[in-house]
Structure formats: C-alpha cells, structure tokens
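Input record, target 12 of the design panel.
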C-alpha cells in the first residue's frame, strides 16, 4: 500500500476482523441443522477413528486436554477462519472473497469441515510455495486431513511440469489437450476410483447422477470466460504482481476443466466447484493487475464479478 494510505491500515484491520467474526458466526450455525455434525460428534466421543490421521490427531489432542466435542468443533472452525485470513491476506482479495465465503460458510466451511480444513490448508501452502519445487513434498501434508486433496495435488503437479504460466492459452494448447485427454480416460474408471478412495457409499447413488442444469451453466460460463481471459494479450504481462497471481488463474482453469469432464459425478465435480469458488477472488484481482486498458479491465472485471456472484441469489443461510 502507498505510504500516504498507511493511516487506513488500522481501519481496514478492524473491518476485516469484524467480517471474519461475521463469517465465523455463519459457519457456527445451529448444530441440529448441520448434516455432518452428529457424525463427527459420535466419532469424537466414541473414538471410532473413522477419519484421516491428521484430523484424528487433532481429535486426540483435544481429548487429551479434556475438550468437549462442542469446544473441539469451535476450535476447528476458528482454525479454518485463521487459514482463510492468511489465504486472503491481501485486503482487496479478502473483500472480493467475502461474498463467496458467506456462500460457502454453511457447506464447505461449516459442515464438510475435514475437506474445508484440508483445502484451506492446501491453498495457504500453495499461496506461499506455488513456484517452489519443494511444494511437491510440502503439498502432501493436507492429505492428512482429507484424501480428496490428492486431486488438487495432481492438478498442481501437472501445471508445474506442463503448463507455462507466463504464456497465454495458445502456447499451452497441447498441454491442455493432453490434460483433458488424460481426464477423459480416467473418468471411465470413476466408480473404481471412488471405491479405492473409500467412497464406495457414493457409487450408484444420486451423487453419481450428474450435475444440475444450473451447475453445468455455471461451469460452462466460467470455462468460457477463463478461456477468453487467458487468450487475451494483456499489456501488463511483465508486471511481476500480475504474473504471480496468474498461477491462480491457470490453477482455477484446470480445476474447471476437471469439473466439466467429471460432470456426471456430482460429488467430484461439486467439490471441485467449491474449491474453484475459493479461487474466484484471485481471478478478479488478476484482471485488475493484468490489463492496462482501463475500459477493457473494468468491462472484464464487472462481467466476471456479476457471473461469479449470481450464485448468491440462491443463498439460504440458517
């Protein structure tokens, strides 16, 4: 931030802290309305150890200091909020993210807490280490909280070795076609993969019957917009900040492609879409950085923001 605006930092910090409290309040909604709360409670109180090692380790620590389950749940939600504060440490990105965080507050963040914890942990590590080779090792840590993180780890690994982030879409076309072809092959074995990962209870259920029309429209619209964004010749491509944020845009693009190819599996495609929602603020921020022409920048920013926030029209919070 420019020196002349430093006096605003305390005000921004207070606003951000208040919004995080609001987010936490939405996440910590009535447990009787939370579809997963009871399952986590009995697993914790009877020590069934049904979850991944990292989450069970946190449970063991909580039991060791005699935390009641309600307190343990409270701590897990706080931990997620802290991770989100770190992930969106840029004040503008946080403000852009807040509507999406409210949208996710009682789903990904407040109900699917293992997946939410693992995803936010992975993205925080990615935000710091995305261009470091040792992220290929460190990026495995969130798997201790949810094994579905392997999907995002593999997406990152493909991007690391085959996608030239500093180039536009046309110079990555062969790599993107290879990525799509590989996923089209993998999707043929979707039921086997679910069973292998311990999700056999999803096979043959409504979760394998494909996305809704609204979900597909959302995916195809964002795929179309990202294709345009990554194909445009941006005049600020040499701007270091814009180039750094572009990693998020390509990562989001690969997630959208994955979600589209797996659209007949609502459980996989749906979770990919939730994670993509967390990345939308970085795309908006990149638009502001990457395009020099003010009219083009404003036009793209408004279009993408409107398309992204339309999902708030169906928001129903408890």
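The sequence produced for target 12 reads:
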């Amino acid at each position: 931030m420019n020196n002349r605006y430093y006096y605003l930092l305390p005000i921004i910090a207070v606003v951000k802290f208040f919004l995080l409290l609001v987010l936490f309040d939405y996440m910590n909604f009535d447990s009787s309305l939370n579809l997963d709360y009871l399952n986590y409670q009995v697993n914790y109180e009877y020590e069934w150890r049904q979850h991944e090692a990292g989450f069970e380790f946190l449970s063991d620590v909580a039991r060791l200091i005699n935390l009641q389950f309600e307190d343990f749940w409270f701590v897990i939600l706080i931990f997620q909020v802290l991770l989100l504060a770190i992930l969106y440490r840029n004040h503008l990105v946080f403000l852009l993210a807040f509507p999406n965080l409210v949208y996710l507050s009682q789903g990904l963040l407040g109900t699917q807490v293992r997946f939410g914890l693992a995803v936010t942990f992975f993205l925080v590590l990615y935000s710091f280490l995305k261009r470091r080779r040792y992220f290929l090792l460190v990026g495995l840590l969130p798997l201790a909280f949810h094994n579905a993180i392997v999907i995002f780890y593999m997406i990152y690994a493909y991007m690391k070795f085959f996608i030239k982030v500093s180039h536009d879409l046309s110079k990555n076309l062969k790599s993107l076609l290879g990525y799509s072809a590989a996923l089209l092959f993998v999707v043929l074995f979707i039921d086997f993969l679910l069973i292998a990962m311990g999700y056999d209870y999803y096979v043959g259920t409504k979760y394998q019957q494909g996305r809704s029309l609204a979900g597909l429209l959302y995916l195809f619209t964002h795929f179309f917009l990202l294709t345009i964004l990554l194909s445009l010749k941006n005049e600020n491509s040499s701007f270091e900040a814009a180039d750094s944020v572009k990693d998020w845009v390509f990562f989001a693009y690969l997630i959208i492609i994955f979600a589209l190819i797996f659209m007949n599996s609502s459980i996989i495609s749906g979770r990919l879409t939730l994670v993509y929602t967390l990345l939308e603020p970085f795309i908006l921020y990149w638009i502001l950085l990457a395009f020099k022409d003010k009219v083009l920048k404003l036009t793209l920013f408004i279009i993408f923001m409107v398309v992204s926030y339309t999902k708030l029209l169906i928001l129903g919070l408890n």
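The chain has a mean pLDDT of 91.
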